[in-house]
Amino acid sequence: MIFGVEGSPRRNGNSHKLLEAILPKSFSCGERVEHVHLRDYRYDPCIGCERCRKDKICTQLNDGMTLLYPKLLEAKGLVLVSPVHNYNVTAWMKAFIDRLYCFYDFDDNRPRGWASRLAGQGRKAVIAAIGEQADRRDMGFALEAMRMPLEALGFEIVAEIAALQLFDRGAVLGKTDIMERARLAGRKLFDSLS
Questions:
Q1: How far lies 30's CA from each of 13, 19, 141, 191, in Å?
Q2: Which of 15, 25, 62, 166 is deepest in the core (most CB within 10 A)?
Q3: Arithmetic mean of pLDDT, 117-133
């Protein structure tokens, strides 16, 4: 399965359209694709309780992430799409990423060594950030905020998209260059999993 996660507060906005371009619902390879929009789930950020070290999944917070963990575990491919909010990903995307902490194992040495239980399984990802800015530097840390945690978890990032100069809802549909990069990123993800 390939799992698409969109972190925008807007329905049918640029992030949604970009996700659909990367991962159309039906793809010729027959791989199952599922999309979720984080605004449709209610979940809290990680509270650092460390209970997941023993339970191997977050059991302290029984919320919308409980529905998303099985999808993430099943998926060999992952797509994260977020608009830029204040030089970073949205609060929804940040909380989603932080809640993936439960997939790490730690040893008892100081400083603690760690390993991801998702690593070594051939998992691949595409990341995309959307901003109204004209200069990529003004997107701040949005792409890094997705790339670095996913790489630490064991995902190989096969493509990343910085979609600039977009604000109006659905404006990305008129940007043929961005939409083509999105389609190519999706194809690269599918091909990398074959």
A1: 27, 18, 34, 12
A2: 15
A3: 96
Q: How confident is the model at residue 27 (pLDDT cuts 50, 70, 90)?
A: low
For residues 69 and 75, give the distance between their C-alpha atoms in angstroms, rounded to a whole number: 10
Q: How many domains does the chain have?
A: 1
The token pair at 140 is 């701040």
Structural domain containing residue 120? 2-193
The domain that contains 79 carries what CATH number? 3.40.50.360
Give CA separation, 182 vs 14, 63, 106, in Å: 12, 31, 36
> Phi, psi at residue 119, to the nearest 5°?
-75, 160
Q: What is the pTM of this model?
A: 0.95
| 111: preceding bond cis by omega (within 30 degrees) | yes
pLDDT in tens, 153-173: 999 999 999 999 988 888 899
Neighbouring-strand partners of residue 55: none
